[in-house]
User: Which sequence fits this backbone?
């Protein structure tokens, strides 16, 4: 009983100490989110004295539903996220397995690998832009050496999307690798030891024991990546401007253009809110499937 | 969601900061920025000019202008605040700040295509009541009307920009070819130079999916007799046989190998560096490219010629150039409007315009300065600019940014060959229509 009161008091004190931080989070994160949802449901007028909201309307969403450009951006963002996150997860896990075995120089390798991750995307996108440049790019020089002249990678819809995906994978695979490596290091040795004693081979140990145990670490890594990939903005903004045409226009880029180039704050907020909703649904679905699998394992 | 929240943070943060700052400045009144006018009626105090860099990269013309202004106008001090060099980034920074009520700057630079959009959204203060008609009448013809939205002049033009054809004098001399006056002639001459292995590519321009393509497109279209929006700004006119002809020709430049296929990813910088590295014979670009291509970093310095853009065969030359350039806008939240207006007025005067022309290398907006023989002699581009046939992008409509997006995304798609020219123009026409009627994205 006494312990319970103490705990409750400690908890209350904890809230008091956390409240300044929570206030900041509320002001800079929760308020804008709610504000943009409210904005997406209102008639918005932009004036020199701020943004005026009036009434409740579904008009902003109706504009989106009838715009092929919006649906194209949804499709592109979803497909792009699915492809890049899958490749990054597989590659990242493979790299983590190698790193785990490395005895000497693991720290150096990790530092080296994290270089792409630490580069600001705008900078790395510019660098990839030089590689992909259709006139003096490195890629062009390499293909020319093999007798295929004038490959304009960023000039066709599919190759531009693939080129962007490669730049993304190059940058974020190390992140997945580090997350998975952290999971691997935490794995209990005695389980694998016991399996080995029971005569299980390396493949069996990996697929039946280590990978299932790795699931929490993988889940966190994949969730982070899905959230980030859905906000894809800087790569297309720098590399392709959403082109050719609008073929590589992501939801974030479309939202930015509608909000800040066209000053259409209503539909722009609706794009932002829809994007958040889609990510939320995807993440919940992912977690549900993931939990079900964990449940099966336990059962 | 990530982007909107991060974009809105500045607005919210700004609002909070402003409330705090307002509180502070009222308690510590008597600062220079607060003082609007001296008893004599002469504006004084400190103002802030939010400006991106223009002119040559070696010297900062903005600082030269500020020094000259402070010397000429005793009492006003001008702070320079560096603005983003990317036009769209600059615009979004202005929108969030002004809509958030910021008075941290009084005067700001702005693009020629913004008056209608900013006028409609109230992001700039109309200037009619501050500056008399005699002030406006000194500018080159057509300039002030292009800055007018619903009868209100929204900005003071500080320099204009035109497009030119840059060519390699040495290559044309070697092949005994004249300077082309039609696009067809340019294409065949370029092909000849390539066939003779004198140069790798024939022609470069800005065909990336961005505002610059709207400029290039407007010129080709005007040469073919086409336009994108009707004069009343109520309907699309882009789906016409003349427009198809113009777009087919542009696509043909790529399919014939005269322009590299990567032209569809080129903005000004990429096309210019192809020219200054000596790999292309003809270049469409803005005024500054002349100084750049004859500068120390250029492999073709001394071999560069400049002339008016060509037109299509059968049309009377020269070809059209769109008007670019930058203006000064007045922040509606300025705390020192009289001083801000005094600065804007001075920037539209003879002294500032002469500095901009002679030291900045930009085309002055005041007619008497542009026609001054000393100014004309200072830059080979100026006499040619005086002969340019000008055509404005349809920026007189408030939904111009959407109209332009409809143009450059679809034209770019057609230039890469992923859709036919006809279907690209139909799609553009439909999107321009919905932009003008304010339906759809």
Assistant:
């Amino acid at each position: 009983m006494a312990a319970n009161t103490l705990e409750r008091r400690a908890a209350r004190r904890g809230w008091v100490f956390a409240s300044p931080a929570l206030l900041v989070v509320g002001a800079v994160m929760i308020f804008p989110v709610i504000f943009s949802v409210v904005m997406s449901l209102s008639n918005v007028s932009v004036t020199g004295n701020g943004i005026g909201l009036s009434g409740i309307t579904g008009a902003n969403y109706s504009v989106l539903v009838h715009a092929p450009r919006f649906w194209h951006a949804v499709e592109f963002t979803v497909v792009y996220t699915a492809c890049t996150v899958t490749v990054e997860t597989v590659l990242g896990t493979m790299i983590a397995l190698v790193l785990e075995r490395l005895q000497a120089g693991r720290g150096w390798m990790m530092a080296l690998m994290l270089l792409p991750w630490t580069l600001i995307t705008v900078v790395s996108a510019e660098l990839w832009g030089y590689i992909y440049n259709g006139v003096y790019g490195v890629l062009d020089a390499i293909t020319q050496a093999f007798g295929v002249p004038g490959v304009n990678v960023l000039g066709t819809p599919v190759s531009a999307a693939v080129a962007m995906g490669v730049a993304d994978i190059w940058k974020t695979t190390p992140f997945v690798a580090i997350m998975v490596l952290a999971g691997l290091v935490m794995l209990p040795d005695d389980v694998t030891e016991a399996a080995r004693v029971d005569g299980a081979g390396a493949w069996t140990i990996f697929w039946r024991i280590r990978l299932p145990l790795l699931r929490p670490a993988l889940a966190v890594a994949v969730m982070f990546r899905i959230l980030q990939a859905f906000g894809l903005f800087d790569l297309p903004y720098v590399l392709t401007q959403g082109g050719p045409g609008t073929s590589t226009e992501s939801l974030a880029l479309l939202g930015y253009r509608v909000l800040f180039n066209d000053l259409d704050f209503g539909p722009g907020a609706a794009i932002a809110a829809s994007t958040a909703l889609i990510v939320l649904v995807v993440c919940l679905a992912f977690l549900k499937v993931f939990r079900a699998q964990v449940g099966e394992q336990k059962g | 969601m990530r982007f909107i929240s991060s974009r809105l943070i500045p607005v919210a943060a700004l609002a909070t900061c402003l409330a705090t700052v307002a509180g502070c400045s009222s308690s510590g009144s008597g600062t220079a920025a607060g003082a609007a006018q001296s008893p004599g009626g002469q504006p004084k105090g400190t103002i802030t000019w939010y400006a991106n860099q223009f002119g040559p990269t070696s010297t900062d013309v903005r600082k030269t202008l500020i020094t000259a202004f402070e010397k000429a106008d005793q009492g006003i001090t001008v702070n320079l605040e560096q603005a983003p060099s990317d036009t769209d980034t600059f615009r979004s920074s202005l929108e969030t700040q002004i809509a958030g009520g910021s008075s941290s700057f009084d005067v700001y630079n702005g693009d020629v295509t913004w008056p209608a959009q900013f006028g409609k959204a109230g992001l700039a203060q109309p200037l009619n009541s501050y500056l008399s008609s005699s002030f406006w009448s000194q500018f080159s013809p057509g300039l002030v009307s292009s800055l007018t939205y619903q009868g209100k002049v929204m900005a003071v033009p500080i320099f204009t920009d035109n497009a030119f054809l840059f060519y390699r004098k040495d290559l044309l001399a070697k092949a005994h070819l004249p300077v082309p006056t039609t696009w067809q002639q340019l294409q065949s001459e370029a092909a000849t130079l390539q066939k003779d292995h004198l140069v790798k590519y024939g022609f470069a321009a800005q065909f990336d999916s961005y505002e610059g393509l709207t400029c290039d497109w407007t010129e080709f279209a005007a040469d073919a007799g086409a336009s994108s929006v009707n004069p009343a700004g109520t309907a699309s006119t882009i789906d016409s046989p003349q427009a198809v002809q113009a777009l087919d020709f542009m696509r043909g430049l790529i399919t014939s190998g005269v322009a590299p296929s990567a032209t569809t990813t080129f903005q000004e910088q990429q096309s210019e560096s192809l020219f200054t590295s000596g790999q292309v014979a003809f270049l469409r670009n803005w005024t500054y490219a002349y100084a750049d291509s004859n500068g120390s970093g250029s492999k073709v310095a001394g071999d560069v010629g400049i002339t008016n853009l060509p037109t299509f065969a059968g049309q009377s030359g020269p070809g059209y150039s769109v008007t670019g350039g930058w203006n000064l806008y007045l922040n509606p939240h300025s705390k020192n409007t009289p001083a801000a207006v005094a600065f804007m007025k001075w920037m539209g005067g003879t002294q500032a315009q002469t500095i901009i022309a002679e030291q900045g290398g930009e085309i002055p907006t005041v007619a008497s300065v542009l026609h001054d023989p000393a100014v004309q002699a200072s830059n080979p581009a100026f006499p040619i600019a005086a002969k340019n046939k000008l055509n404005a992008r349809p920026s007189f409509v408030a939904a111009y940014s959407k109209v332009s997006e409809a143009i450059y995304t679809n034209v770019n798609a057609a230039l890469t060959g992923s859709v036919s020219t006809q279907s690209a123009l139909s799609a553009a026409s439909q999107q321009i229509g919905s932009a003008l009627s304010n339906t759809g994205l």
User: Anything to note?
Assistant: Chain A has two domains: 2-40, 67-298. Residues 2-40 of chain A form one domain.
